Amino acid sequence: MSGGNGLLERFYRSVIESGDLSLIDEMATDTFLDHEEGLPGQPAGKEGVKFFVSTMREAFPDIRVKEFAPALSEGNMEACHVVLTGTHRGELAGIPATGKSVEFDCTDIIRVEDGRVAEHWGTTDNMAIMRQIGAMAMA
Question: Which of 34, 61, 65 is nearest to 47 (CA)?
Fold first, then answer.
């Protein structure tokens, strides 16, 4: 059985960009475990992924993948680095829309079981987002 080659890119293109939340149930195991600290109020498991995607798409309805690389796959592990762009047109963590453009990056590692994501470790540059929408002063 091959690893998860392509699952991360499919997630970013079909779920983050296109907003198809139904794919989360198809792409993740029922026992999916996310090790990344989530957004305020984000539940665990697949519901947490849906919460994250919905929140980001409401805040940045034009969110797009600017760069997706490298995508690495070894055994049942897959990793990537992605750069996203969007315009702050909806509330995010209590901050009203500013109309400002943002660019931020994410790094993800997943463990795959039977072609579905079982675990996720990752980082999202939330500080870059907050600085760009004016919620934090530049240091």
Answer: 34
Report whether 132 contacts 98 (CB < 8 A).
no
What global pTM score does this model have? Answer: 0.90
Q: What is the pLDDT of residues 4-13, one digit of tens each?
A: 458 999 999 9
> d(Cα 32, Cα 64) in Å, to the nearest integer?
25
Residue (of 81, 108, 107, 118) closest to 1 by Cα position = 118
Tens of pLDDT, residue by residue over 75-118, are 999 999 999 999 999 999 899 999 999 999 999 999 999 999 99
Q: Which residues contact 126 (CB under 8 A, 6 or more apart)?
A: 104
